[in-house]
């Protein structure tokens, strides 16, 4: 079995593990830093809004044999507006003209066809009124709001409100990072990007839900034992589901990466590229946040509960007593996620 | 883990893997058969993959008529646009509402995109208004001002025309739109009328000044104001043209611009005499007597009365006041003259039409009166070549993505991966057949974002298998043998899968409801594949796992099965090897 498999076994048994919960403030710090960077980038640089948000036209021509500069000149001449021209993998040209009226665009297309010596019927045109992108964005905001409310309600029912809150914070975190990356790198924002962004919603939560599920299971009868505090259980849950999280993320990223590669390589730009780019960034951020942010946040919220405080006290007291007897409490290992079994006193881990 | 919980008996389908498998097999066969029977073996492709033009229209809510954008009016508009587009001879065009105020018009390749756009775009209110005055479109001294203004506003069309044709109104071009005569249909005594009116109005044309002021009838200040505006109006200027007549009630006189042949003309028009909705039908056809193209109109009762009245009044007047203008969305599209009162509700317009212009006018007259006005939000024209390329790119990306996932699964899960791969395959077959059938069923068209959604869904679907597999492996690490491990892992994995799929589905559903156009395609596939994921995991992956757990290869934890307890670092079996005695050497016990 692969290295990851061995690691999985060790993680599962708690032989190795990273103290996600203990070092949470480090990761909170990292996230806050990233988030601030993202917000600053957004404020300073702003987003590079695509033609869909400004109104204009995108023409895609078949192979022309002309240089980009030539085509740019021709396009600006024909339209009277600034044009951005990009050569595609196919040898064709992608001509973006912002501010062009949808009515006038038809004539520009005709002129372009003559200038570039291609038939008009071979030119693809994407004409967008100035309010189109805005409408998509507005609907996206509505969607975002509706989704967040629904998902918080659902998670509060399926899990508990603390997890719902943590998941929501992680989600906002992911979205902020994604938007920040767009502002920082200057990727163009198109309706495709917005689609990708909205899809992150569901996807980023998928990972979080997987981890929370493990946590919920691990902490089911937590108050009936005195071996572990909630933080420790949570950390074990994260470590126990780490391989699962890594695998689900990798498997989710692979098709998106293929899309990104093909979309970027083949078609130069367009829907495929836009969707997959924002998905890729968002998915990566989502995987990170579900492990480093969401669960530690649940811990912070949960440890405030009186029951958990009491538990912590009991656990620490017991450990102190054990230490007094000369027995190292660290030797005790939990065999699986269910503490009540452990408390029955079996410690099969030692029989290795 | 000692015995107490062992008794969590599997229920329903879990206990009878054969039945679950039979259900999904029947479903697959039925869907595939349905696909072949309905001859719908491929999903219908959207415009961006098959080529064609897609137009997104948004209903404008006008001041004072905010409530006009409602379902009834939207549906009426869809009906009218549909008739219009299909009136161009395209039966494939589809028109549908999306969201509250959008209409999507998809026109497949192979038809005149420009013409279609015009037909769809002229989503106008149609009125018949009597002409009070007419003049050439530009104000006095037009040559100097004309050419820069259109280019500044970014319009290509007027520029080309102004440059070439405005100095001299060539008789041939003006004859095409001028001098049209209106006569009573069916009786068709139309022969003499076109000629005189044509020559007369050409004269008016050539003067190129706001000359017909002679006709201004009123000392009324409103009329004088209108006169002044009329004199200043420059119909060759796009902005002025767009602004003219806006917000004027049909019952008030108004100014209007219109193209006569290659040139712009401007009009003062009286209150609307007949509304477009009173036109029952209209079409361009060849007049059997003259062999010329004409446009025939048929009014409803209300329209017939109003029309008889107004034509009676007009017929008594002098040029140009014996004309009335057919005004579509503020533009004069025709201005025939009237020589007699036309009663009975049938009329025809003759003079200077060709087939195209007659049919266009006929279409506009019949379908002109939309209850709403629309703006073009986006127009996408995709050539078949690019469409094919995009489809190919999508398919290649899908294949590569699938391959990467399969390789990863194989490396990591070995034998288990085959279960995942076959499950993915089942999911793919279900998705494909359902998409193909939905093409016919609900008009679902596979567009590029939908392909994207399907590719992204590979990951989501595979994730469910991973969740389950990891669960099983956890149980094996506990020291369980495979069969109990498979059953014990299921309820837990099931919950995780259901919860996370529910969240995915929720995202897809919200996306589908609140968005428009392409985004919907994406959301739709994502939602569909998420649902199918649940179906496949429940009815296929789990039962197959149960069955395979009985085979020696998997149950013995063969190194290539992906379930080798030794490699998983399992603890020695919890219970004495009551079961292991049968199939497998006690490999699991490593000590």
UniProtKB/TrEMBL annotation, chain A:
Coiled coil: none annotated. The chain crosses the membrane at residues 25-44, 140-157, 164-187, 193-215, 246-269, 275-299. It is found in: Cell membrane. Gene3D superfamilies: Multidrug efflux transporter AcrB transmembrane domain. Residues 115-303 form the Protein export membrane protein SecD/SecF C-terminal domain. Forms a complex with SecD. Part of the essential Sec protein translocation apparatus which comprises SecA, SecYEG and auxiliary proteins SecDF. Other proteins may also be involved. This is Protein-export membrane protein SecF.
From TrEMBL, chain B:
It is found in: Cell membrane. Gene3D superfamilies: 3.30.1360.200, 3.30.70.3220, Multidrug efflux transporter AcrB transmembrane domain. It comes from the Bacteria. Pfam families: Sec_GG, SecD_1st, SecD_SecF_C, SecDF_P1_head. Keywords: Cell membrane, Membrane, Protein transport, Translocation, Transmembrane, Transmembrane helix, Transport. The chain crosses the membrane at residues 20-37, 391-411, 418-438, 444-469, 497-516, 522-540. Residues 147-158, 165-177, 209-222 have a biased composition (Low complexity). It is a multi-pass membrane protein. Residues 138-222, 564-591 are annotated as: Disordered. Its main location: membrane. Residues 416-547 form the SSD domain. PROSITE patterns: SSD. Part of the Sec protein translocase complex. Interacts with the SecYEG preprotein conducting channel. SecDF uses the proton motive force (PMF) to complete protein translocation after the ATP-dependent function of SecA. Belongs to the SecD/SecF family. SecD subfamily. Forms a complex with SecF. Part of the essential Sec protein translocation apparatus which comprises SecA, SecYEG and auxiliary proteins SecDF. Other proteins may also be involved. This is Protein translocase subunit SecD.
